[in-house]
From TrEMBL:
The keyword Oxidoreductase applies. The keyword NADP applies. SUPFAM superfamilies: FAD/NAD(P)-binding domain. Gene3D superfamilies: FAD/NAD(P)-binding domain. This is Thiol-specific monooxygenase. Residues 71-80 have a biased composition (Pro residues). Residues 48-88, 453-479 are annotated as: Disordered. Residues 453-464 have a biased composition (Basic and acidic residues). One of its GO terms (molecular function) is N,N-dimethylaniline monooxygenase activity. Keywords: FAD, Flavoprotein, NADP, Oxidoreductase. Belongs to the FMO family.
Length: 479
């Protein structure tokens, strides 16, 4: 589709003012083509998932196996959209999953955007990326586009191919909500991944009498002093939290693992005891594991099991289809994790998490160029896009891998970013348009050699530790 000549895109709404929203606003501003750019953010400040909530609100009871729409339902807009209404008691939980000691786990040179680095690194504390995102809006003069304390409650397509947004702006001072609608030619979903906790279904969890929570509400090890704790999951958050709890909880701290993580050695670290997956919870307080061992004295269970993607504002009946397929874990009808074939004026930035901030930049530049009609190569036709999606879905099903996960070690990251790079091309001769970043040797070296967590047993004789610091390791490849 030639947007520039046939269906010009002049107004763009960006949903979310985290890292994806920040770089998308900068990319669209750089084109000097769009007449109206707005970034809608439900929080009081930019920063996205990196905003730190020191005292998170109590979360709803854990709902094992529940899908995101059941946990995070949209609010119902008033029929006549009055200017102001009392705050709706159905308020959702917008807190972020940041805990006190959290640091980034991607080296800063690879994680930050190409035109500026984090203030320090390589693995920065959580307040650094939050400040970085906030500053990025003002640095690129896109802060006037921010509409804060405003939640998108309903998104429906219009007959002209654009989008109607039903918005709710909350006034903390007056404790009132203002509802209104706006229409845009195009919408970019930059809503992130870390809003709705995922809790796998385990028999008996809903009636288990001990304290259970998701890592989203964990902040520090202090409340767990002298308590018996079971961690479910051993990804980054499970690793961090279990290591912290060794300093305060009764030992050992138990960690339930489905499989070893890449940083697990042959035996657990000091103060940690590994357990297999939980088979069943009992009202007596007993927890039975898949090997039929059990624990009776656990005080706290902390689920570090990730998050569900959620688009509670999506009206599938009016828009004609679901936006997210929960069975296969993917955007429906997507191409290159970015474009949505059935909705040419709707796109997503930030679904794959490889290199995080940096990969968002490639997507943002590609979309800004595409809707301005300046992309260097044409977007494939619908049939070819469908073929790409179905082929990838089948491949991922066989390999039991997530659709939107992109690996680094097998070259898939470079292939994906390379496609976005070629598609976007350069800006104009007169300087309109942001240039997609290069994947430099310095960035590649940092990704492959700076490790936040040591990875024992994963070197195959090709890596050795050169020096150890407090929380990261530098390794060198031989040969």
């Amino acid at each position: 589709m030639d947007f520039k000549n046939k269906n010009p895109i002049k107004s763009v709404a960006i949903i979310g003012a985290g890292a994806a929203g920040a770089v998308t606003a900068a990319a669209f501003e750089a084109e000097k083509y769009y007449e109206n750019i707005r970034v809608f953010e439900r929080r009081e400040t930019p920063g996205g998932t990196w905003i730190y909530d020191s005292s998170p609100s109590p979360q709803p009871p854990l709902q094992p196996g529940a899908l995101a729409p059941e946990i995070d339902p949209p609010l119902t807009p008033p029929d006549n959209l009055p200017q102001t209404t009392p705050p709706n008691k159905q308020y959702r939980y917008f807190e972020t999953p940041i805990y006190n000691s959290l640091t980034t786990n991607v080296p800063d040179i690879a994680m930050s955007f190409s035109d500026s680095r984090f203030s320090y690194g390589p693995f920065a504390p959580h307040h650094i990326p939050r400040q970085y995102i906030e500053t990025y809006f003002s640095t690129h003069k896109t802060d006037p586009y921010l509409i804060l304390n405003t939640t998108l409650e309903l998104l429906t397509k219009t007959s002209s191919g654009g989008w109607k947004l039903t918005l709710r702006t909350h006034s903390p001072l007056l404790q009132t909500d203002k509802w209104y609608t706006q229409t845009f030619d195009a919408v970019i979903l930059a809503t992130g991944h870390y809003s709705i906790p995922f809790i796998p279904f385990v028999p008996g969890l809903s009636t288990f009498p001990r304290h259970t929570q998701h890592s989203k509400t964990y902040r520090s090890p202090i409340p767990y002093k002298s308590k018996r704790v079971l961690i479910i999951g051993n990804s980054a958050s499970g690793h961090d939290i279990s290591q912290e709890l060794v300093s305060t909880a009764l030992l050992p701290v138990y960690v339930s693992r489905r499989s070893p993580s890449r940083w697990d050695g042959d035996s657990p670290p000091k103060g940690i005891e590994w357990k297999p997956t939980v088979k069943e919870y009992f009202s007596s307080g007993r927890i039975v594991f898949s090997d039929d061992t059990y624990l009776d004295d656990i005080d706290h269970v902390i689920y570090c099991t990730g998050y569900q993607v959620s688009f509670p504002f999506w009206d599938s009946s009016k828009n004609g289809k679901e936006l997210w397929d929960y069975k296969t874990g993917r955007l429906t009808g997507n191409y290159q994790h970015t474009f949505l074939g059935d909705f040419p004026t709707l796109a997503a930035v930030g679904m794959p998490r490889v290199l995080t901030f940096r990969s968002f930049e490639y997507q943002a530049v590609a979309l800004a160029r595409y809707w301005a009609g300046r992309n260097a190569v044409p977007l494939p036709g619908v049939k070819e896009q469908e073929k790409w999606e179905l082929s990838r879905a089948e491949e991922r099903r066989r390999e039991r891998r997530n659709f939107h996960d992109i690996a680094w070690d097998d070259g898939e990251t470079e292939e994906w970013l390379g496609w976005l790079f070629r598609f976007a091309g350069l800006g104009t001769l007169r300087g309109e348009g942001r240039i997609p970043p290069v994947l430099s040797e310095e960035v590649i070296w940092a990704v492959e050699n700076l490790k936040k967590y040591p990875e024992p047993g994963n070197d195959n004789g090709k890596e050795e530790s050169l020096e150890e610091e407090e929380d990261w390791v530098v390794v060198e490849r031989k040969g």
